[in-house]
Amino acid sequence: MNGYMDRIIKIDLTTGKQEEILISKKIKREFIGGRGLGVKLYTDMCPVKLDPLDKENALIFSTGPITGLIQTAGRYQITSRSPLTGTIITSSSGGFFGTAMKKAGFDCLIVTGKSERPVYLDVNDGKITIKQATHLWGADTHETMKIIKQEINSSASVACIGPAGENLVPFAAVMNDKDRAAGRGGIGAVMGSKNLKAISAFGKKDISVHEPEALKKMISTLNTLIDKNPVTGKSLQLLGTSVLVNVINEHGMYPTSNFQKGVFNDAEGTSGEKIAESILEGRSACFKCPIACGRKTRTSTRSGEGPEYESVWALGAQLGINDLEKITEANYTCNELGLDTITTGSTIGCAMELYEKNAFPEKLIWGDSDNLVKIVEDIAYKRGIGKDLALGSKKLAEKYGKPEIAMQVKGMEIPAYDPRGVQGQALSFATSNRGGCHMQAYMISSEILGSPVFTDRYSVDGKAEIVALLQDISAAVDSLVLCRFLQFAVSLDTFKEILNIVTGSDYSEDELLKVGSRIYNLERKYNVEAGFDRKDDTLPARFLKEELKEGASRNRLVKLDEMLDKYYEYRNWDKNGVPTDKIMKELGL
């Protein structure tokens, strides 16, 4: 089938054996690639009894049929089970690694087992070689990428872990192309548990396309759509993702001091506008991306990329910190050591509130920026105070007797939108298959940004249906694999058209939506078998019982119960959140 390289390789690091995995056209049709194919392969291969850090657990790197062909299509997905949450986890990253892996000749790489000594994989024009990496163990991500490029090919793209992954921090990230991250859920720790330091990818293989001329026209159309959309054509290009800082703060839902407040008094000093004015050196872009939302920045002592919106919040307002240089340097450190900035910042914020409530033995106070970089380093190396913080907020708060202070869902920390100000996003957080995540249904697009149309952010009407629909659309787009930002400018019908042009298939819009539903329900089924149900589709009590006292979202609570039953009903799940036989049969599961 066009768009695919038709090679899926399973590498057992214990034995060094490589095995080709064949999948049917039916599986391609029903799951496409990327997230969908990764979830299908993972759930077929790994029973729920496997610990995420067990050597037999699988780590699946997957591309999709659109990878390497159009704007924003340099992404790849990693699928496994999260050591942070215990849920199935799919994590996506941009940059160039996805294209490099596909042009090297592979749709998926499935890594199992554990090497006796550190290794990395050299994926080069149809061949995979396991190489020793003892000399790389302990190196940060930037140094690792630099050395591997010197050893293999300066044009290779490298995905790797840093010390956080080596030390099995449960929110360690996989970094590629320097500062791009498969950040959430601890994929880096799974990689570290296998003594796999990195994967280098390079190739020049052609990707077949069913209708090449039609694809050229589509690429031109996409440029027009991206340019016309105010988010992709203006805001993200001018100010990057941190354009949201002032917007969300003005809506009174910019989480401050571990979600105790929704307004940060110095948001302006850490905003996208301030980044552009004070530390910006230039823009950076992923593969074939005209949006170029990445920010190249420089402080008085260091340079790098970011901070992105979630990072500038997690290492800033969430901790009561307004020093942009210190926030930026902490962000650089997270990238270099391989840490998810959201969980890192939120866990520090949890500890600060624990200390404020006399429940934590170490002095951590709001606004203390001087020790921020050192704390991040301590987390990555699990030393001193970092040993506790490396637990993540859920286990940290439980350890010190105040579980309610952890701002998380299913063990994953909630990102930078106070759910009391956005009912649909609140439901999205509660029902996300991977935990407190905004990427599986980004309701901010309609509730705050008005894309494609404005919906009342305080109303619960219709939110169950919209959240479920957006979760399914996002699962399908993650299977192509394309950037979430493209969803601002492109409709599901256009995504369907792109897929058919490339593959020669005849997907309808409804069938593509059904693919997304199939993926979401399969993930849910795995989580149910792992012990998750309605009790886990909730939010911290703070959002359900404590009103915000100031700002545009004051006097609001999340009306979760009003939405959850409707969501289950729309999903065809029972009252406990378990997919019914009817929906499983309908989806062929």
Structure description:
- The chain is of the alpha+beta class and 589 residues long.
- 40% of the residues lie in helices and 13% in strands.
- The chain is built from 25 helices and 17 strands.
- A six-stranded mixed beta sheet has the order 2-1-6-3-4-5. Strands 8-7-12-9-10-11 form a six-stranded mixed beta sheet. It has a three-stranded antiparallel beta sheet with strand order 13-14-15.
- Strand 1 (8-12) and strand 2 (18-20) form a beta hairpin.
- Helix 1 (25-31) packs across helix 2 (34-45), helix 13 packs parallel to helix 16 (393-399) and helix 19 (463-477) crosses helix 22 (509-529).
- The longest helix has 21 residues, at 509-529.
- The protein is globular and about 60 Å long.
- It starts with 7 loop residues before the first strand and ends with a helix.
- The relative contact order is 0.12.
Describe this structure in a few short sentences.
The chain is an alpha+beta fold. The chain contains 25 helices and 17 strands.
